[in-house]
Amino acid sequence: SLQGAVMSRIDQLDPVAKLILKYATVMGDNIDTKVLAHLLRNNTSNELFKKNFESLIEYGYLERKADIHKFNNSLVAESIYKSLLRTQRKELSVEIEKANNDVYKKP
Fold it and tell me: Which string of DSSP letters, residue by residue, matches 26-93?
């Protein structure tokens, strides 16, 4: 299947890049790099985060739109999203909301 082929390509990525894509797909259409960096701060260095994020743009998974990034292809985003269990999506969503509040200092 097409979704299987997309996921096969993604499985070959660096673990940090895969984690970035998982968070990004739950974020939706507007991927905030400040929030993503905050989410990954315990899993990787800022330098490694930037390197992996830039590689995702270079490989065509993501595209840059000023400070906001988007998936270059909705099929990729949809395939990643569908690969996550509902409980995983919920956990990621809660983490994203907390990180968003931390980054932008919302109570």
Answer: HH-S-EEHHHHHHHHTTTS-HHHHHHHHHHHHHTTSEEEETTEEEES-HHHHHHHHHHS-HHHHHHHH
- In this structure, the dihedral spanned by the alpha carbons of residues 75, 30, 48 and 89, taken in order and rounded to 10 degrees, is -60
What does the pLDDT read at residue 83?
A: 92
* Dihedral pair phi/psi, residue 40, rounded to 5°: -95, 5
Say what the alpha-carbon torsion angle 18, 38, 72, 7 is, to the nearest 10 degrees: 10
d(CA 86, CA 100): 21
Above 80 in pLDDT, residue 34? yes
* Average pLDDT estimate for 75-88: 93
d(CA 20, CA 35): 11
